[in-house]
Amino acid sequence: MGTTPSSSGSPVMQGLKSFWQRPEGTVGKIVLVLATLAAGYGFYLILPALITLAANTLTLALLVGALLLFLYLVTNHRVLTLGKLIFQSIMRYLTGLFIELDPIGILKNYIAEMKKNLAVMDNQLGNLNGSIRTLQNQIDANQKEAEHSMALANQADKKMAAGGLTPLDQQQYMAAKVTNQRHAASLLNINKSLTDLRDKLQVLYNQLIRWRATAEFQVTDKENRVSEEEMRRKALKKAYSVFQAAKKIFAGDPVANQIYDQTLEYLADDAGQMLGEMEDFNRLANKLMTNMDLETGAVNDEAIKQLSEFQAKLQPTAATPAAATGQSAAVPATSKDDYSDLMH
Question: Which pTM value belongs to this model?
């Protein structure tokens, strides 16, 4: 069985050129290069738009994330409870500060609010009383109108009872009688309803009047209590100011006490230093004075000794009457050695 030669090895296939080797392939390469350059230039042109789109997409993602986080915080029961407790704690702290600053002012504002509500109650009571009066006036007017309608109906009935009326007149009188009777009955029914409403409103008004008196008593009582507390607080504040002054005297300010103690310590140290220096100087002075006294005594003794020796040299060998009387003889002017001994 013979082998079939491969197509690449055939002379016919070897003589053919590929697409890229032919002229149209060269044109194709140029077109591809130009297309690549055009695509790169186009990408360069749309690059800012793509960057903006990416930035907007990132911004949108962050906004959506923040919105989801906000919705989670808003809808989470624990977070809401925590926020509520924090808010209440802050408000309680601020209220405590305000109460501590002006408690009497808060009580007076409360009394003023109660008086304001009492004035509103008085106004509403006046309006309610006016409504009751209006209902009563309407009832009275309806009653009069109903009586007038009944009178007209009775008059028509009398006319018909007297006779001598034409059938048309008889019919008209009958219609007037029925109309007036119906009108009177309607007004009486209305008055019955209005009277029931008036009675209920009157009961409510009387009850509110009693409540108003009780409310006024409450306001007056609280106002008196606030006045009492105000006077008590003023007196206590004056007494407390005296107490604070006494407390400062007895307890003292810590900083002032420290300065006071340090000052006393400084004075004690300074006094000790000065006393020590004076004592040291006194000891040194005593020593110097003692030495000076000894030096003086020694000098005096030496001087007396030399004087005695000098006197002994001046006296003659034999005793003279002058020596016996303690008078010294005249010293010869030529005796220089005796004076030199005295100086020595």
Answer: 0.45
